[in-house]
Amino acid sequence: MLVGGGHAHVQVIRRWMMRPLAGVRLTVVLDRPEAVYSGMVPGFVAGDYAARELEIDVVPLARRAGARVVLAAATGLDPKAKRIALEGRPALSYDVASLDVGSTVRGLDLPGVREHALATRPIRSFVDRLEARLAVAGGGDPLRVVVVGAGAAGVELSFTLEARLRSAGRSARVALIGDSRELLPGASRGLARAAEAEARRRGIAVRLEARVARVREGALELVGEREPLSCDLAVWATGAAPPALLAAVAAPRDGDGFVRVSETLQSVASEDLFAVGDCAALDAHAWLPKAGVYAVREGPLLDHNLRARLEGRTLQSYRPQRDFLALLNLGERRALGGKWGIAASGAAVWRLKDAIDRRFVARFQVLDRAGAPALAFPASEMGESMACGGCAAKVDPDALARALAGLPPAARDDAVWVGLDRPDDAAALRLPGGDVVLATVDGFRAFADDPWLVGRVAAVNALSDVYAKGGRARFALAWVSVPDTERRRPAETLAQVLAGVRAALDPLGVTLVGGHSTTGAELWVGLAVLGELPRDTAPLGLAGLRVGEQLILSKPLGTGVVLAADMAGRAAGAWALAAHASMLRANARAAGLARELGALACTDVSGFGLANHLGTLLRASGVGAALDAAALPALPGARALFAQGVRSSFHAQNLAAASAWLDAPAAERTPSGPLLFDPQTSGGLLFAVAPARAEKALARLRDAGEEAAAIGDVMPGPPRIELRG
Questions:
Q1: For residue 704, how many C-alpha atoms fall within 13 Å in the half-sphere facing its CB?
Q2: Which CATH architecture has domain 113-240?
Q3: Could you give phi then psi for residue 258, rounded to 5 degrees?
């Protein structure tokens, strides 16, 4: 289990892709999908790179390696129990684990630092916030910039900030202050003298042996000085400090709080816990600075030692170099380099640094800027022919219709209000006392290798059938099939699924009252849900659309194509994360709003796709519809993936079935057309309201966090769909 997507871990993941270890499952735990390569951050500040060029999207990289990806922040680690605690979900167990979670910066607890200074760690946050600050740095008086920290980070940032502001025509006064006695402590004197000379040439004021006591709006207060140092932008680039997670790791730490490791990169107290990069402290090399170059060089050795530990072989020792090629970005597309006490600067040094940095990042960028497979990354056949999970794993709609038509009529039962004689999203049963029970069952094979996520989405998806009928879900039973390959940990897989189910049900007041478990070829999760309707209230049906009403879709489309791409390592991590967030939003509020605003017909959009679900409403209501193609809401990445030719494995069946409602092949060839046939997992509700109420419906849905849209109008005529635009 790799916790974090740092410079060493991405190398392990890539090597695992090229040479997996039989019988071992690789899991990657990430608090966010993208990792930022620290070596290029000063270049970003200088304007040499766009933010996208610094990023390594760890999710598609891990998918290509066949790894399980858990998008959740780790909050603790117990090496004795071999458990990793996660934010908002159950802990995960491991056999061997590694930490590569980087560091934060020292001094954040000083008064005013968090409120008024721009800390360089976490790097992703720094990049985003700095870009926003520089975007509003307009003309006027010279911008007063103070960089706190005289190490490599502070030196590079002072130079690159000055160069960027000057190139943008913005007058600036840059100062660099540090509490050390010399610039670049620990570096060769030749490199330090060259940096001092560059600062003098550029007019950057350097103040050493100065300590900040407080940061306030527009000024820094220094220890022992009466007059504060005025500034418009304070950048906090002090030395490394341990991230909060390490305080919750039950392993020995050094005096600064970093995990102590031996030369094999193992915790000094646990042979099955490794730590690398800035979050680790090598006992045998206390002099080792927190520098990205060491994390990069630890990657191959970490990969070897993880494999050796799992296979019972001898581990290798890490021998860090004391003297390495230091390359500091000066801005102006110039850099300063030093080794063996010799320093040189200029454009040629920058080109060398640029080539090294770009080559490193390109090794791990699976997708290009447009989200298409990067040409420089090794091609992979992974997942191209895999059947999709979720609601994309359904029986063909025609086959389902034929199977139901072949059943003999059921015996009359006055308690059945809505049943197979007129199929709907949920059955409606009248009890002797007059109460109405809504009943449904729904389930699917796993769409991701994350049992907790699959369980939670399966529950949200199953509840939608009751909500689509305007009811209140009350009770649920779960049916879980655990893969029979999970012989070692069936209990943990089952526990993760059920915890995910409960995470969906509990906030909605739905009680899990029982279920059934079994084993099978793959993870499968289903739920039977019982709900109720208010007294003297009919369920929202499939019939009831009225000519002139506007069609409202409460969620964006595209889960099918995004999940299919994610399985194949072709979806950006942010795209997968957005799809997960959409699938996890329950339809309870949308259902209540549909009822409140007078909707008579409603359905949830699931595996058969928007066109077929809308067609079912049109047939039941005896009307047609005109859809605005440009108004169809799409998840991030969905349209880009369609343009690349990516489709869910169930897309073709949906397209064929939709020919009953529109010219499906012609629609498929339009930019937004594929959205009509994409199978949705835990999709939104589709209903119609009077035009005067449509804006209110959209406003209310968006206030509730939904990306809802008015997608067309109900028209007179036969049950056909006209696609406009």
A1: 20
A2: 3-Layer(bba) Sandwich (3.50)
A3: -90, 150
> So what's the architecture of 542-725 in CATH?
Alpha-Beta Complex (3.90)
Q: Categorize the per-residue pLDDT at 137 as very low, low, confident or very high, splitting at 50, 70 and 90.
A: low
Q: Where are the domains of the chain?
A: 2-103+242-323+347-362, 113-240, 413-539, 542-725
pLDDT above 60 (res 622): yes
Query: Is the link from the previous residue into 490 a cis peptide, with omega within 30 of 0?
Result: no
Instruction: Write out the two tokens for 69.
Output: 């990806």
Whose tokens are 């003309």? That residue is 139
**Over 50: is that where the pLDDT of 133 sits?**
yes
First to last CA, the chain: 49
Q: Between helices 152-167 and 189-202, what is the axis angle to 10°?
A: 30
The reply to whether 113-240 shares the fold of 2-103+242-323+347-362 is yes
Q: Which two tokens stand for residue 110?
A: 């000083």
Tokens of 476: 């649920």
What is the three-class DSSP state of 175?
strand
Q: Which amino acid is at 377?
A: F
Q: What is the pLDDT of residue 383?
A: 43
Could you tell me where the beta strands, DSSP code E, fall in 415-471?
416-418, 427-430, 436-445
Tokens standing for 332? 């102006």
Superfamily of domain 413-539: PurM-like, N-terminal domain (3.30.1330.10)
- Active-site residues, by number, are 391
Distance CA 153, CA 182 (A): 14
Regarding the domain delimited by 2-103+242-323+347-362, which CATH topology (the fold level of the hierarchy) does it fall under? FAD/NAD(P)-binding domain (3.50.50)
pTM equals 0.91
